[in-house]
UniProtKB/TrEMBL annotation:
SUPFAM superfamilies: DNA ligase/mRNA capping enzyme, catalytic domain, Nucleic acid-binding proteins. The keyword Hydrolase applies. Keywords: ATP-binding, DNA damage, DNA recombination, DNA repair, DNA-binding, DNA-directed DNA polymerase, Exonuclease, Hydrolase, Ligase, Manganese, Metal-binding, Multifunctional enzyme, Nuclease, Nucleotide-binding, Nucleotidyltransferase, Transferase. CDD domains: Adenylation_DNA_ligase_LigD_LigC, MtLigD_Pol_like, OBF_DNA_ligase_LigD. Pfam families: DNA_ligase_A_C, DNA_ligase_A_M, LigD_N, LigD_Prim-Pol. This is DNA ligase (ATP). It comes from the Bacteria. Its cofactor is Mn(2+).
Length: 783
């Protein structure tokens, strides 16, 4: 019987480990559990060589005896705390994982990433590609040659490099050959280092033509060692030191001594041998490890001790923590006044810039932007940072003290801070909630908790018996599109589908706006969601999260149409969803819709106090401009601005709930198909779109981009039964109608577009997906 899944916490990160007894190396019986054990034990030696480098992987899902595939882009199901950086490709940017700790190593092993490959450069503190900090020569034996021949060539290369002031270090690759590494000062580009390596290879080939070849041609390699200089190209990667190899046995790219290379019985080492060597001798590649690896690397890189009065430590490693949990809030008069909140964590001060300071009440949320960790000496720093230096301006201590931590996750921090006796803060319970990005420059909301707030009043009992909690009685309240923005209560407009949740105390039942029961489509939301014992009806949005942890409606399309249990289970694993709550209609059989929004929110916070990770109560803000800027950075559609005194009006559009759109989007009714040409011959080329008016279906253009093959197949299946000979539009042009295939105007879709012409035609429209939760009668211009 397979080993049961395990939920583990590693350095504060939660991971779900499965199939730990799966055999990854059939020849030795080595299991996934043993692979994970190796990585956790080798991590102190391995991590410095991965630090700051994008990782590409070779994955063996069924073990090294079966097939493998190369993975660059971080998969959509990866935990949000796995650090990542984008790299541009011809097909767009791809997010590459960064291995910044043991949790990331374990996660990669969990998804069968056996081999980890990295380039010879690292990202700089601003996320740009840096110059290479090490040279690599890959000595690859051709047929008839082996490790002994590679060792001979390595010694010749060492003699040349040593004469140039470089001290190379050897690594047996764990596959066939030997890698030679030499540290660089980072002053030269990848192109320059690659050119240097190529000339070195040619020189060795000229001196030793019987054994060395520098050409890429495989025909020239028999009985010779190919000296691959191209691994220094900025777009290429090499197996990382200490990485396992996907071979018959669990061999490792293992650092060696030069004395070992003289052994005629030189061979590749297994992972248990490497662990024993490191335990005895440490990391033989330590001279290659970046000397600036550590949490304060970015802080030090931005400052010069000779130019700023700020504390600038010699080491980026951080300080030993005395065990206290201290904080400081500094008032920073830089280009714009803001406040810096810093919390002691693992020997550094984890820091956020908060433009508007600590919220004064629980009804207010303030934007917070994570900055680089600061040294512990910053706890009592005050002074003037000179003009021209990073963060120039005056810095004073607004308040300082200690804090009691309740929760510290990569996306949420909850703590109670108690300031000094004469300070302005007092004792407050605060929550920091990440809304986008990771690490430096990630966006957060700072929320003041209602710890000391009065208990919300119990909703008044209705004059008659409580109504049964049925979705037919719980039509969602709707918002109007705002022409002007006004303040009060600001929520993000999430990119998902609206759903009413009916909690009966045992299971959460979900219904779409149309009343359709969609419970079975989202099993991860409905079983034991942690909503308490009292029945209730709640309102929210179901969203699918992309690789950047952002809601993605196109991604949700892969979930919202499924009905077969096997398909639902498969996609639930691949595309996780969350249910984002924003209102409550009933509590324990009592109508809450007539209560003010602010009071309903208090009820909702109590209901959602102990929910699972899939049920989320996002914070609200009171500053439209701040929230709008955050929504734009998140790539969200916009905001919903609400009056805190507003009731919940079932099925009505209210002037007290206003939509503020950032992205130009339009719901449309599909009225026709233009046949495809070229690659799309025989399929859908574009869709003809319309918006209902008093005179009939008004033509607003066509959409022919944004379709995947799966989307086209789904549309074809949905539209074929609706084919008709009757043109549903009242004003479609002759050219558009010339080859159109008409369909009954029953399906609603959503598009984004660049602009609308005076007559309402949508220019540069791009398909986003079907909206089965909407009917044609609900489609309106501008909505």
């Amino acid at each position: 019987m397979p080993a049961a899944p395990q939920e583990v916490r590693i350095d504060g990160r939660r991971l779900r480990l499965t199939n730990l007894d799966k055999v990854m190396y059939p020849a030795t019986g080595t299991t996934k559990g043993e692979v994970i054990d190796y990585l956790t034990r080798i991590a102190p030696a391995m991590l410095p060589h991965l630090d700051g480098r994008p990782v590409t992987r070779i994955r063996w899902p069924d073990g090294t005896g079966e097939g493998s595939f190369f993975a660059k882009h971080l998969e959509a199901g990866a935990p949000s705390w796995v650090a990542r950086r984008p790299i541009e490709h011809s097909t767009g940017a791809k997010d590459y994982p960064l291995v910044d700790g043991i949790p990331a190593l374990v996660y990669l092993a969990q998804v069968a990433s056996i081999e980890l490959h990295v380039p010879q450069w690292r990202f700089d503190p601003d996320g740009a590609r840096g110059n290479p900090d090490r040279l690599v020569l890959d000595l690859d034996p051709g047929p008839g040659a082996g490790l002994a021949e590679c060792a001979e060539v390595a010694r010749w290369a060492r003699a040349i490099l040593t004469d140039l002031g470089m001290d190379p270090l050897p690594v047996t690759s764990g596959s066939k050959g030997i890698h030679l590494y030499a540290p660089l000062d980072g002053s030269r580009t990848s192109e320059q280092i690659s050119a240097f390596a190529k000339e070195l290879a040619r020189a060795l080939e000229a001196d030793h033509p019987d054994l060395v070849v520098s050409q890429m041609s495989k025909a020239a390699r028999p009985d010779k060692v190919f000296l691959d200089w191209s691994q220094n190209n900025g777009k290429k990667t090499t197996i990382a030191p200490y990485s396992l190899r996907g071979r018959e046995r669990p061999t490792v790219a293992a650092p060696r001594t030069w004395a070992e290379l003289a052994d005629p019985d030189l061979r590749h080492l297994l992972f248990d041998e490497v662990l024993a060597r490191v335990a005895a001798d440490g990391d033989l590649l330590a001279p290659l490890a970046p000397t600036d690896a550590g949490p304060l690397r970015s802080y030090i890189a931005k400052r010069s001790a000779a130019k700023t009065p700020e504390p600038v430590p010699d080491s980026p490693a951080g300080a030993a923590s005395p065990g206290a949990s201290r904080f400081v809030i500094q008032e920073h008069h830089a280009r714009r006044l803001h406040y810096d909140l810093r919390l002691e964590r693992d020997g550094v001060l984890v820091s956020w810039a908060v433009p508007r300071g600590i919220p004064e009440s629980a009804s207010t949320n303030h934007l917070a932007v994570m900055t680089e960790p600061h040294p512990m000496e910053y706890l009592d720093f005050a002074g003037d940072i000179p003009a021209g230096e990073y963060g120039a301006g005056s810095m004073s201590i607004w308040d300082t003290g200690t804090f009691e931590l309740e929760k510290w996750r990569d996306d949420e921090v909850i703590f109670t801070a108690t300031g000094r006796g004469d300070g302005p803060l007092g004792s407050v319970r605060l929550a920091l909630i990440r809304t986008s990005g990771q690490g430096e420059k990630s966006q957060w909301l700072l929320h003041r908790m209602k710890t000391d707030a009065a208990t919300p009043k119990t909703p008044p009992a209705p004059p008659s018996a409580p109504r049964p909690m049925l979705a037919t009685n719980s039509t969602p309240s709707l918002a109007r599109l705002a022409a002007d923005r006004w303040g009060g209560w600001v929520e993000f407009k999430w990119d998902g589908v609206r759903a009413l949740g009916v909690w009966d105390g045992a299971r959460l039942h979900l219904r779409a706006r149309s009343g359709t029961d969609i419970t079975a489509r989202y099993p991860e939301l409905t079983a034991d969601p942690g909503l308490g014992s009292a029945p209730c009806v709640i309102d929210g949005e179901i969203v699918a999260l992309d690789e950047r942890n952002r809601p993605s409606f196109p991604l949700l399309q892969h979930r919202m149409h499924l009905t077969k249990p096997a398909e639902i289970q498969r996609e639930a694993t691949r595309i996780p969803v969350q249910y984002l709550l924003f209102d409550v209609l009933e509590v324990d059989g009592t109508d809450a819709s007539s209560l003010p929004l602010a009071q309903r929110r208090e009820l909702l916070e109590r209901i959602a106090a102990d929910t699972t990770d899939t049920i989320v109560l996002p914070p609200v803000a009171d500053d439209v401009d701040d929230a709008l800027a955050t929504a734009e950075k998140l790539g969200l559609e916009g905001l919903v601005v609400k009056d805190p005194s507003s009731p919940y009006r079932r099925g009505e559009r209210s002037e007290q709930w206003l939509k503020v759109k950032l992205t130009l989007m339009q719901e449309v009714v599909i009225g026709g198909i233009r046949p495809g040409k070229g690659d799309r011959s025989g399929a859908i080329g574009s869709l003809l779109m319309g918006v209902p008016t008093d005179n009939g279906l008004h033509y607003v253009g066509r959409v022919g981009s944004g379709f995947s093959d799966a989307t086209l197949a789904r549309l074809d299946a949905a539209l074929t039964p609706l084919r008709t000979e009757e043109n549903p539009f009242v004003d479609v042009g002759r050219a558009e109608a010339s080859d159109a295939l008409w369909v009954k105007p029953e399906l609603v879709g959503e598009v984004e577009y660049a602009e609308a012409t005076p007559n309402g035609t949508l220019r540069h429209a791009r398909w986003r997906g079907l909206r089965p939760d909407k009917t044609p009668s609900e489609v309106r211009p501008g909505g």
